[in-house]
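B., you asked whether I could sanity-check this one before it goes into the benchmark set. Here's the sequence:
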Amino acid sequence: MEKKEKRKGAKKVSMEKKILQPHQLFQRHPSNPILNAKAWPYPANSVFNAGATLVGDETLLLVRVEDCRGISHLTVARSEDGITNWQIDRHPTLWPNPQEYPEEIWGIEDPRIIWLEEREEWAITYVAYSRGGPLVSLALTKDFKNFQRMGPVMPPEDKDAALFPRRFGGRWAMIHRPSTAFFQGRVHIWLSFSPDLKHWGDHQILIESREGGWWDANKIGLSPPPLETEKGWLILYHGVKQTAAGCIYRLGLALLDLEDPRRVLRRSDTWVFGPEAPYERIGDVGDVVFPCGWILDKKTGEVRLYYGAADTCIGLATADLQDLLDFVMSCPEPPKCSF
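And here's what the prediction gave me:
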């Protein structure tokens, strides 16, 4: 009996130790980086910041591709295992179209993909780089070949946007990150609602950037789209720390209420993933990990995180969903928004 109790105690200590080591939650794939410009079927400077989804059993990435002018477009890459043997569209899948959508004059960037069950189509939020600054645009597709552009849904400057896959009280919800006016030098994550995916209102701050020396002080933004779990909507967000040597982009976790995404239940004090490997620290923009997509294997509970590394290539990191939930549930409940 005494040995059995000791074994139980050892298991408890082991679980607590796991929760207390947030930087071990995500494991880099040994084949990283899994995609770079050398794999591209046409000339490109860099490939990074890809949206991700499943199409049947196939992993689909909608990759940001920067050409040698510095202008970005989006191209589809497909893989059966989500790791190797990528089939990349021979030509750009979604070009900027400034003739009909002038807000796309300097490129389109950083897509996030959500499957809308109600509409039986995917919604893609992306950044359109306009003369007035970056803004959030929306496109819909059923096949990743034909796209219905909805045009801008937020004015500049706004970025880091993703939809929730279902409505709340009859309205769609979108997380985004406006930054036209810095309040006390800080930029926050916002939440907005819409009856039709086009007209957005009830804008409110969802998660505040912190102040001072924190890893996520002053500037934060959503990374991949919200992930629905039994505990709530799991949020992975990036924080930008300004140092004497430049910015460092790291990732933290938060949890929102399932039925009321305005309620932030938990938020991590520490980051859970940051630039460490050479391909994350050295590149066009060093010290950056920036995911726009993740995929959950519902059978195994494995989360595959696809992230841009140093704005130059794409890396893959994996985590166990239960580990992420155990960790985020151990985090403190954040104070109510002070604005």
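One thing to flag: The CA atoms of residues 4 and 10 lie 10 Å apart. Otherwise nothing jumped out at me.
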